[in-house]
């Protein structure tokens, strides 16, 4: 009812809001978590933090499996989506290791932390939270999903994780953590809007092979993140990010050759 009313008032605004809804949910959870963290002042027991992380890890793993199922919906000539997804994530992982994406991201984070270490707890909290919330596959994949199809499920899960992390961070660093919403809006919102323009050029984004392949490969990466959260494995998740670009590229090449 409310959605219909908003649509009648301003349809264009509804379209932009839906495509970036996950970002606004993320902003809300970070603000709420930061407020709770300041109130709690670090009194949340470690064992309770571990249980929360494990619960989020299980849910993230389930979500990754669900997303990866998109590969089963793709068939391009003699190639199944699973095979194309496998090629994309293997070559993408090799490229990621060659380019040392994971190591470079860690180096950037360490450099920023070192650079702002003497700037007070406000700056340190802002930098630490911004890196944690924006550097990672869930932010990228979730924003693309939200922009392409309006599905904010992945960003909603990330929002829950970020909100809980905000409690722990803000109890140590203070209100600077709350200001990490600024890079969240710019990065995630920007990706979602860019993806929404891409979706407008596709006839059927929900069934387009390129979108399904990208979502499927993204699901495999999210599964890896879930395994990391559960401490079942220690995967270099960032190394597989090039696979997200290779999936639609492989799709275009196969369609062109067919």
TrEMBL record:
InterPro entries: DUF554. The chain crosses the membrane at residues 24-44, 51-72, 78-101, 122-144, 173-199, 211-230, 236-257. Pfam families: DUF554. Keywords: Membrane, Transmembrane, Transmembrane helix. PANTHER family: INNER MEMBRANE PROTEIN, INNER MEMBRANE PROTEIN-RELATED. This is DUF554 domain-containing protein. It comes from Leptolyngbya boryana NIES-2135.
């Amino acid at each position: 009812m409310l959605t219909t009313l908003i649509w009648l008032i301003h349809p264009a605004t509804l379209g932009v809001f839906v495509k970036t809804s996950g970002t606004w949910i993320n902003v809300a959870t970070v603000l709420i978590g930061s407020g709770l963290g300041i109130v709690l002042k670090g009194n949340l027991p470690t064992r309770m933090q571990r249980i929360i992380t494990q619960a989020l890890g299980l849910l993230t793993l389930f979500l990754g499996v669900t997303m990866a199922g998109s590969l089963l919906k793709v068939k391009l000539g003699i190639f199944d989506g699973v095979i194309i997804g496998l090629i994309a994530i293997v070559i993408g992982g090799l490229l990621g290791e060659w380019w040392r994406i994971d190591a470079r991201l860690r180096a950037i984070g360490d450099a920023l932390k070192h650079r702002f270490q003497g700037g007070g707890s406000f700056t340190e909290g802002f930098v630490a939270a911004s890196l944690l919330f924006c550097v990672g596959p869930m932010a990228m994949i979730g924003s693309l999903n939200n922009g392409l199809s309006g599905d904010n499920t992945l960003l909603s899960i990330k929002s829950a994780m970020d909100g809980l992390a905000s409690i722990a961070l803000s109890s140590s660093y203070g209100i600077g953590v709350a200001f990490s919403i600024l890079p969240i809006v710019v990065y995630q919102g920007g990706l979602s809007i860019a993806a929404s323009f891409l979706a407008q050029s596709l006839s059927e984004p929900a069934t387009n092979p390129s979108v399904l392949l990208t979502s499927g490969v993204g699901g495999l990466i999210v599964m890896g993140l879930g395994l990391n959260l559960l401490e079942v494995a220690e995967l270099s998740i960032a190394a597989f990010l090039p696979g997200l670009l290779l999936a639609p590229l492989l799709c275009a090449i196969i369609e062109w050759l067919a």
